[in-house]
Amino acid sequence: MVFITEESIKEFQTLMEEIAEPLKKTFQNVHQGYPSGTLIRFLKARDGNVSKAHKMLVDSLNWRIQNEIDDILTKPIIPTDLYRGLRDSYLMGMSGYSKEGLPVIAIGVGLSMFDKASIHYYIQSHIQMNEYRDRVILPSATKKFGRHISTCIKVLDMTGLKLSALNHIKITTVLSTIDDQNYPEKTDTYFIVNAPYIFSACWKVVRPLLQERTRKKVQVLSGSGRDELLKIMDYASLPHFCKKEGSSSSRYSRNGTYDDCFSLDHSFHEQLYNYTKEQAKLLEADALIKQGSFHVDFPEPDPEGAKIAQTIETEFQRLGNQNGVSNSLRGIKINAD
Q: Pfam families from the entry (predicted)?
């Protein structure tokens, strides 16, 4: 476990006082009034090494300036049908809050297809959700719960995970690298639910490659994880794919009776989308609204991330090459009756 000392924080603060003014300006959007907390996050991401943490943060601030990240919430993805297609093919949303006030972010890993638009739109949408979380959701939670809240909980639904997930490994690696390099230590716990055999087999291989602090954050729950998750959040905050009991937990309908937190019609996405349109109007950004996707430079994955991605790909291929496994996995359903 990394222990961050007061001395290292002060040393980091001194280094940040020397950065250029444009970097200081974008740093304000990052720390949202809690600069020390941000320094601690980057220190944790670099195992307490001040020099490496400083380089990581400065690189991230430069990335924000070069890619105009501070303005990304003024650039809605239009038309609405295109954005709806993104939401239907990249399943991610917010279902509520934990009992401690942490936002609950739901991700449909197994059923996300990333097939409705170019990679640039998915990256734009992903970063917009990150920025909306950090600039709107977390400050609001901090005010509501009366304490500084800077992290979230993520519930990853593995329903429908198949060998075809290899087709998405490039874009998922890009998205995870963006998070690792520019939004470190923003997730308190990752809960894996509805995990099929293919995930379990890969997890055994990938888990030892993760850093200890990351391994401790990941919890693989039985079935839909409903009972375990209810210990830390109310029923209303459960992602829709966790609300059923028993072995049929994964057989939910995305248009059924449960509140689909992935859909554009969910309150979280409606509020986020309306927020970006309102911000565009406030800045008289009509010209920007008419433009195409918002291009962000693809980050290069660090060696550790590249190794993990390669390991996942190799393990998927190994499973697919086993006699009889490929055919059975193509039609696998999590916890099927």
A: CRAL_TRIO, CRAL_TRIO_N
CA distance between the termini of the chain:
42
Q: For residue 320, what pLDDT is reported?
A: 66
User: What's the whole-model pTM score?
Assistant: 0.87
pLDDT tens string 276-285:
999 998 886 4
- Mean pLDDT over 82-94 rounds to 96
CB 272 within 8 A of CB 129: yes
- Nearest in space to 125 (alpha carbons), one of 21, 262, 26, 327: 262
Token pair of 79 as six digits: 């038309």
Partner residues linked to 196 by β-bridges: none
CA separation for the pair 272, 74 (Å, rounded): 11
C-alpha span between 152 and 81 (Å, rounded): 29
309 with 301: CB under 8 angstroms? yes
Look at residue 321 in the predicted model and tell me its pLDDT: 67
Strand duo 187-193 + 152-157: pairing: parallel
Domains and CATH numbers, the chain: 6-66 (1.10.8.20), 75-279 (3.40.525.10)
pLDDT digits (tens, 9 = 90+) for 114-133: 999 999 999 999 999 999 99
Query: Is 332 in a helix, a strand, or coil?
Result: coil
